[in-house]
Write a structure and sequence with these properties.
The chain is α+β, with helices and mostly antiparallel strands and 94 residues long. Helix content is 66%, strand content 14%. It contains 2 helices and 2 strands; from the N terminus they run E-H-H-E. The chain has a two-stranded antiparallel ribbon. Helix 1 runs antiparallel to helix 2.
Length: 94
């Protein structure tokens, strides 16, 4: 079965997005203040990204996805979540 997204409630989407991005902004701000800023101030250098560095970035992406989903669930609890209108799409034969 194929389902098509026909409509997203614009105001509800904006409300959820505003809360979600506010939460993400606070977390990124804290991370910058506690981790990145001291490292930069200490003068750590090195522009080469090694294989372990790439693995670490992949892990960071996974953690960011977990965090984003958890924050969305929190924002959705407060705001009601996204409102979507779905319809069943006709099956196309080739």
């Amino acid at each position: 079965m194929v389902t098509r997204l026909r409509n997203i409630a614009v105001v509800q989407f904006a409300l959820v997005a505003a809360v979600l991005y506010a939460l993400i902004g606070v977390i990124i701000g804290l991370a910058w203040w506690l981790v990145i800023s001291p490292i930069m101030m200490a003068g750590m250098k090195g522009s080469r990204v090694s294989a372990p560095g790439m693995a670490a970035m992949t892990g960071i992406g996974f953690i960011a996805g977990l965090l984003y989903a958890a924050l969305y669930n929190l924002a959705a609890r407060w705001t009601g979540g996204f409102e979507l209108t779905l319809e069943q799409a006709p099956v196309r034969t080739v």
